[in-house]
Amino acid sequence: LGYEHLREINPRLIYCAISAVGSDGPDRDRAGVDLLMQAYAGLMSITGDEHGAPVRVGTSVVDLTAGANAVQGILAALYIRERTGQGQRVESSLLEGQISWLTYHAVAYLASGEVPGRLGSFHASVAPYGAFPTGDGYLVVAVATDALWRRFCGAIEQPDLVTDPRFATNIDRCANRDALHQTLVPILAARGAVDWAVAMDAAGVPCSPVNSIDTVLGLPQSQYREMVVDIPRADLPGLRLPGVAIKLSDTPGSVRTPPPRLGEHTDEVLTELGYDGERISSLREKNVV
After folding, report:
1. In 3D, which of 204, 89, 208 has the Cα closest to residue 138?
2. Fold adopted by 129-210
3. 195 near 203, Cβ under 8 Å?
4. Which tens digit of pLDDT belongs to each residue from 4-53?
5. Known active-site residue 63
6. Percent of the chain as helix, strand, coil, to the nearest 5
7. CATH of domain 3-112
8. CA-to-CA distance for 161 and 177, rounded, in angstroms?
9. Which stretches within the chain are classed as H helix?
10. Domain spans, the chain
């Protein structure tokens, strides 16, 4: 049953389809999984160290983006239906989600013809901007303006770098990226990431240690914003799960029930569909459910 048939029955129907590359076009039958589409959509060509192999993004960003785009499309279609009374077909694909997320990389190529490459954690047009080794881990700094550069130099107690002609402006720092990196690495290696972060936070310089998963889930901010919730189940009394990322002021969402055990709600679902107890028992005897 496709959309064209179903819309004849219910013109208000909103029908969502998610595919690898879209429902039409020369590659419409291509299979799609997250890793494959990270490669196919170009994401891996810009992810990883400059002289290293292409790297998969650490989470399933292609799948998650396609799902989020589908939700946005459905919500837009619901809003339009309130105005027109008509439903419509909503499409989202793994490929198109990633092309849209190429953003400034795609714009830069279309404007200049230069193909972007991998830069590790660094940025093609801003410096210093990336992860630097410290005495006990990596620290990300995001010095996006010349004003922040001056604050950064103060925080690392290197005021002479402000007037160094190689680093005076962001254009200079990008042109002398290797020299900048060689200058900063030994300075930042003298102290730990958290120690540097305290100093830079005080100076108003955007920065963060590269937190591990256990650290970020234990952050006071994560706890305060209920991004980790206790949701015990009889067989898993200590079960904890990620919370709800979108906060609504009047109708807040929450995690109210733990994940079900296999088949836990079978009887409930079948009852809602009109099956009585005898028919459900018969299905169980036949190993249908």
Report:
1. 208
2. formyl-coa transferase, domain 3 (3.30.1540)
3. no
4. 999 999 999 999 999 999 999 999 999 899 999 999 999 999 999 999 99
5. yes
6. 45, 10, 45
7. 3.40.50.10540
8. 14
9. 3-9, 34-40, 61-84, 94-101, 103-112, 146-155, 160-163, 170-175, 177-188, 193-203, 213-217, 220-224, 266-272, 277-285
10. 3-112, 129-210, 212-254, 259-289
Determine how many CB atoms are found less than 10 A away from the CB of residue 22.
16
Are domains 3-112 and 129-210 of this chain identical in fold?
no
Element (H, E) at 90: strand 89-93
Distance CA 143, CA 29 (A): 44
Residue holding tokens 């900063």?
Answer: 184
Respond yes or no on whether the N-terminal peptide bond of residue 128 is cis (omega within 30° of 0). Answer: yes
Amino acid identity at 47 = T
Of the residues 24, 29, 34, 63, only one is catalytic, namely 63
What is this structure's pTM?
0.86
Q: State how beta strands 15-19 and 89-93 pair.
A: parallel
Provide the 10 A C-beta neighbour count for residue 136: 13
Question: SS3 for 68?
Answer: helix
Query: What span, in angstroms and rounded, lies between the C-alpha atoms of 58 and 37?
Result: 14
* Cα distances (Å, whole numbers) of residue 4 to 9, 86, 89, 141, 284: 9, 13, 9, 52, 36
In the structure encoding, which two tokens stand for residue 271, read together?
A: 């009852």
Q: Which residue has the tokens 């005021």?
A: 159
Condensed to tens digits (0 to 9), the pLDDT of residues 74-109 reads: 999 999 999 999 999 999 999 999 999 999 999 999
Q: How far apart are CA 213 and CA 252, in angstroms?
A: 26
Q: What is the identity of the amino acid at 77? A: A
- 15 three-state secondary structure: strand
Question: Pairing state of beta strands 240-242 and 89-93?
Answer: unpaired
**Hey, is 72 helix, strand or coil?**
helix
How many other C-beta atoms lie within 10 A of the C-beta of residue 86?
Answer: 13
H or E element at residue 141:
strand 138-142
